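User: Sequence in, structure out. Go.
Assistant: Echoing your sequence, followed by the structure tokens.
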Amino acid sequence: MRRHHLADDKAADPVAVARRVVGVHAQVAASAVTATNLRTGGTHQLDTLLYGERTLVRTWAARGTLHLLPADDFPHWVAAMSTRTRDKTNSWLRYNSVTAAQMADLLAALPDVLTDEPLTREELADAIITATGHRELKDRLTQGFGTILKPAAFRGLLCSGPPRGRNVTFVAPRRWLGDWEPVETGAAIDRLATDYLGAYGPATPEEFARWFDLTPALAKKSFRRIEGGLAPVEVDGTPMWLPEAHLKELPRKAAQRAVLLPAFDPYITGSTRQLERIGAAGHKAAVSRPQGWISPTVVVDGWVRGVWEPDTGEITWFGTIPATVRRTVQSLIDANLSTGG
């Protein structure tokens, strides 16, 4: 909880939050706002940071889902995400009803059609079609999940621009954020692996690979490269690693702390493989639900003790919970309901 700024050590601003937790999940905008406010102890206008100061950037990142990233870390993310080649496989192409030639034309056209002038999904689709002649891609380009646009995001060719009413927009990162020098791929992966272990360790290379959407082989190579700064530990008989500098923090007892986390909070999305170990034993399905939905959770002293419903305040507890903890959490629920969240 200390590492996630959920205890007494609050972050200076949402950019510092995004850096510490290695990206704030932003599929649900309201959850991203709550997650950052919890960790700063204040209220911040994310749109100002995203579209005014441009110190945050919103794009498809870890696991191919929308995240808020520090703008100055974006080159590292692009370098690491460049290892994703799924969009070149026959299975991916067939599933998305697109050909390799169509994808190549789409990616080649983007630097010419997308600038720092925001385009809606429809406008971007029309611009790509004009440039490539692939009118048959219109439905897939305007599809809400953006599946065939994600490979472009992974290559640093597009990111979110300011919304226009209820419509999302896209801009070219190199024009929107300013150009950057390429980052070596291995160094970028190592940086993200170190940051990941700092927020979510101890963990294994396989867990890092799943969290980021990286091949396990590349994750293992990265852990070997950075092993000089890591400490091996054993969790329930499983060898894991965390930054060696964090070992001295482990015995330090923190003041008791309970928090109500929103849906898709980074504390949970980065630990879905560890849910059984951090309090959700027997209740994982209540936290990590079908279609990738991550429930709002009740966390006490780092342990996931239940899930809750923000609209009603209803709590589903996991197991027997001491009365003192129940009262503490209920006071948080009451305060949340009285302020409307």
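User: And one key feature?
Assistant: The chain is about 40% helix and 15% strand.
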